[in-house]
Design goal:
alpha+beta, about 20% helix, 6-stranded mixed sheet, about 270 residues, 16 strands
């Protein structure tokens, strides 16, 4: 299989050799088999774009370093997270797979002002960390707090795009999910995104700051393809295509206990 062999045996590209850095809005480059030796090591994904497609019968690996807050939102079209690391993405590109970095879109973020997000439910967070994958009841009770919140101001935020395929499975940075789970607030500076500020201007009313403007790529060598290994959460069917693994069904009694504990915590 390609997976372990590709990571173990393929040598890294010599990082001491000069490699392109895409830094201008005009730097829109798409590499093909004829120029496969040229790979960028850095991309300013806010104002440039890059596309690479692995040639027929070839494979290549690449480690992509995105700003850490965004990595958990890199998911497949089936909603499965690519990996559990918050530092980088280790991607295998088999024949026909591609990676796309850059381009922009606008998402709508909610601004609740200075409302103390999440403090009412700290006791639920402790249980949530202990019981992974059993969040449906917690999410229900968290919705009860929405009625106490002030009306949100909706803010347009400009964000860059990121997507790729690995062994035929499509992944992308799901900005819609990010907007649902995260809020924006004036005065909340995390070094990666927020309202435009004089010392850290963004593309539009809100967007990514300079500290999150660079995507780093560390490429391996282009090698002959020996097939591909399905990403985590997938398995091959009879035709050799990657399909989602069936998730184990949760026991009704365990979920009932979780609901009872959550309810007791809220009432108490």
């Amino acid at each position: 299989m390609l997976g372990n062999d590709l990571w173990a045996n393929a040598n890294w590209v010599n990082t001491n050799s000069p490699t392109p850095k895409l830094t201008k809005a005009s730097d829109n480059i798409s590499f093909s088999q004829e120029s496969a030796e040229q790979f960028p090591s850095e991309i300013r994904w806010n104002d440039s774009s890059f596309t690479y497609t692995a040639p027929t019968d070839k494979s290549i690996r690449v480690i992509v370093k995105l700003p850490s807050q965004f990595i958990p939102y890199v998911v497949s079209s089936d909603g499965k997270r690519f990996n559990k690391s918050n530092s980088s993405l280790r991607i295998e590109l088999g024949q026909g797979d591609s990676i796309n970095v850059g381009g922009t879109r606008t998402i709508t973020m909610n601004d609740y002002g200075n409302y103390p997000q999440g403090k009412r439910f700290k006791h639920l967070d402790r249980f949530r960390k202990k019981i992974a994958g059993k969040l449906m009841f917690f999410n229900h009770f968290r919705q009860l707090d929405i009625g106490r919140r002030p009306m949100a101001t909706q803010v347009a935020m400009t964000v860059p795009l990121f997507s790729f395929t690995s062994c035929g499975v499509s992944y992308s940075l799901d900005w819609d999910k990010f907007a649902q789970e995260r809020n924006i607030a004036k005065g909340a500076f995390n070094g990666e995104w927020g309202y435009s500020r004089p010392d850290n201007p963004t593309n539009g009313v809100a967007g990514l700051y300079e500290g999150a403007s660079i995507v780093e790529l560390n490429w391996g060598n282009l090698i002959d393809s020996q097939g591909c290994s399905c990403p985590s959460g997938y398995e091959k069917d009879e035709d050799g295509n990657c399909i989602p693994l069936e998730e184990e069904e949760s026991s009704w009694w365990l979920l009932a206990i979780i609901a009872a504990v959550a309810t007791f915590g809220i009432i108490g």
